[in-house]
Amino acid sequence: MKKSHKIIIVCLCLLALVGIVGAYAYKMYNDVVDTSSAVYKKIDKKKVRKQELDMSIAEPFSILLLGVDTEALGRTDKGFTDTMMLLTVSPQQKKTTIVSIPKDSYVKIAGHEVEGRLNTAYSIGNIGTSVDTIQNFLTVPIDYYVKVNMGGIQDLIDAIDGIQIENGSEIEQDGIRFGKGLVHLNGEKALAYARAGYNRANIGSDYTRQQHQRQIVSAIAKKMMNVSTLTKYKELLRVLQENTETNFKFDDFYSVQKNYKQAFTKIDQLQLQGTLTDINAETYQIIDPTELSRVSAILSKQLESVKKAPSSKTK
């Protein structure tokens, strides 16, 4: 075969490969757009920011992660938000901070003349009620929310081939033993690890449960930012569509992928702490004002941008 013919064949093969990759990328792009549209839900919430958040220049933002205790988002009973974490994402400081908020925190429910457990805000009102209650409680703006069916966490972790966490001590939950040190978790083991050691009468055990949840969220975030996850994109999108709801739009997802990767290089974990108190025969966690101020100051510092100007856009 002549050299010129070989060159032509190689060029044709390269063009075919580019075409296949291009078609694959186009299909993936459309699938992501479709999924982001399916999970999107706008909410009414109090405007706390003074100026519009601009993600195109990588301004810090916050996300409220809510885990609901229903098997599927389509059930008629709303359930409770038994997992609540507020994340502040700061490319400027090259880190993300995750703070766990105790579900039994005694709070004023926004928009309602009642006080009670924080995790009941959702069932009393809606997602907007939970967002506003926590904004008022911590005095920080919440830009986005993500509501997750906790049962779907198992499928999500399996879709990304599991996660790795550093376990501080040997524990057992639901017949599963977790050794000390680096542990690989599939979806089933991750859910068991998230529940491990919890005893409602022991405030320390609740903090352990919340620490485990933060570890899982951190591991998922790091794994999903990995390019290798793209090979599992179809299964990942299916799980997200079936189990999540958010006010993130497609452009917001794109901005995070493009402008915020460095914010996930370091993930700090915080625990909002209180004391157990009985009120009207019910047990709550009372968060001391000093503790609230401590956590609020850390989160507010994280949300400082280059312009030092928060936004008022309602998502």
TrEMBL record:
Gene3D superfamilies on file: LCP protein
Domain Cell envelope-related transcriptional attenuator: 81-225
InterPro entries, sorted: LytR/CpsA/Psr_CW_biosynth (IPR050922), LytR_CpsA_psr (IPR004474)
Domain of life the protein comes from: Bacteria
A family per Pfam: LytR_cpsA_psr
Family: Belongs to the LytR/CpsA/Psr (LCP) family.
Listed NCBIfam families: lytR_cpsA_psr
Name this polypeptide is given: LCP family protein
